[in-house]
Structure formats: C-alpha cells, structure tokens
Specification:
Elements: H1 6-14, H2 20-48, H3 55-59
Length: 61
C-alpha cells in the first residue's frame, strides 16, 4: 500500500468539487485584502505629504 504525502493529501482535499468554491472565496479574500492594504498605504502617504485633496482623484483612476 502506498502512503500519500501531506502535500498530496492536502491538494486532494482542496480539489474535491465541494471545496473548490471555498478555495475560490479564500483567494478572493486574500486578493481584496492585499488591494485594500495597498491603496490604504498609498492614501496614508498622500496624507503625510499634505495632499488629502488628491485621494479622491487616486481612487477613481
């Protein structure tokens, strides 16, 4: 009998049809969290530079 390694077992569980939407949602949460933090840091930099009026312009680019 062949043993399945931890990574193979993990990937087997992730690719089951019931788990695919959950994996997709996890990826979306990670992406939008990254995007929000990136934009927030950009806006914080504009505030430190005294350019608060440019934040709405940056948001609609």
């Amino acid at each position: 009998m062949q043993e399945i390694s931890g990574l193979q077992n993990f990937l087997e569980i992730l690719t089951k049809p019931d788990n695919i939407p959950i994996v997709g949602m996890l990826l979306l949460v990670l992406f939008f969290s990254w995007l929000g933090l990136k934009q927030g840091l950009k806006h914080d930099k504009l505030i430190e530079e005294g350019k608060e009026d440019e934040i709405p312009k940056e948001m609609w680019k």
